[in-house]
Design goal:
The protein is α/β, with parallel strands linked by helices and 261 residues long. It contains eight helices and ten strands. It has one domain: 3-Layer(aba) Sandwich (Rossmann fold). A seven-stranded parallel beta sheet has the order 1-10-9-6-2-3-5. Strands 4-8-7 form a three-stranded antiparallel beta sheet. It binds 2-amino-2-deoxy-6-O-phosphono-alpha-D-glucopyranose. 2-amino-2-deoxy-6-O-phosphono-alpha-D-glucopyranose binds next to helix 5.
Length: 261
């Protein structure tokens, strides 16, 4: 796992944007795994800005797959993760609607939604680069603590803490759905490159557990330790509880620029 500590969330966002652009330049039909929440926003802002400025690559052949989706919101509700990723990223990059995917939360087909989504990802050739945030309790996508490290896409029940964390996007905590569909930790591990971005002191404990704690279902994000190409982008505040922070800084400072992340 590579840990990169930057001076700000915007600097982390620029590094991730560089990696995504390099991927799309070398593979125009790349498959991008997208995350929602506040953490990836600096990446999306940067990608859309560069695209509008005309310095970014063409995204015409790219496909995106969201990590997760709420169950129970009306179709098109502005807080569905599908509407969110359109608004924050894919509309700005000019992706056609059919290239932007998310788990299907229609209530009458939930039992098959996981397997259908996994097939869709496999048919696209698998995810090349998966963006990830981390929950304050260490959750990854919507895999709450206790999720199997081998789990596949399925329905999950959110913890009270996650619903409270996400209440800021809704009128109140009672409006946050209880159920979700989420890629499993086993599904996420199949992406070829994992890029987790976190900023702010609120994430420092979860980041320390994920990066330096034991690999454990108690901290779902610790599953990144099992992946051969995982990059963790942190600002100083999110990195504050890491015991080996100085070493990570040293390693990154010595890294040849051509390597990217
Ligand atoms: C949500 C999402 C996750 C996200 C996490 C952190 O519950 N399902 O994918 O990583 O919470 O969100 P934020 O980045 O807003 O702190």
């Amino acid at each position: 796992m590579e840990v990169v500590i930057t001076s700000s969330a915007a600097a982390s966002g620029a590094l991730a944007a560089d990696a995504i652009e390099a991927l799309v330049r070398s593979k125009p039909a790349a498959v991008l795994g997208t995350a929602t929440g506040s953490s990836p926003l600096p990446i999306y802002t940067e990608l859309v800005r560069r695209h509008r400025d005309g310095t970014g690559p063409s995204y015409d052949e790219v496909q995106t797959f969201n990590l997760d989706e709420y169950v129970g919101l009306p179709v098109g509700h502005e807080q569905t993760y599908l509407a969110t990723i359109h608004r924050e990223l894919t509309d700005g990059l000019g992706l056609a609607e059919a290239r932007v995917h998310g788990p299907d939360p229609a209530e009458d087909s939930i039992p098959t939604a996981g397997a259908r989504y996994e097939s869709l990802i496999a048919d696209a050739g698998g995810v090349d680069l998966q963006l990830l945030g981390i929950g304050s309790d260490g959750h990854l996508a919507f895999n709450e603590p206790g999720s199997s490290l081998a789990s596949r896409t399925r329905i999950k029940t959110l913890t009270k803490r996650t619903r409270e964390d996400n209440a800021r996007f809704f009128g109140s905590v009672d409006d946050v759905p209880v159920h979700v569909l989420t890629q499993g930790l086993g599904t996420i591990l199949e992406a070829r490159h994992l890029v987790l971005i976190a900023s702010g002191s609120r994430k420092a404990d979860a980041v320390a557990a994920a990066v330096e704690g034991p690999v454990s279902a108690t901290c779902p994000a610790s599953v990144l330790q099992l992946h051969p190409h995982a990059t963790v982008l942190l600002d100083d505040a999110a990195a504050a509880r890491l015991r080996r922070a100085d070493y990570y800084r040293e390693v990154y400072a010595a890294k040849p620029a051509w390597q990217g992340i």
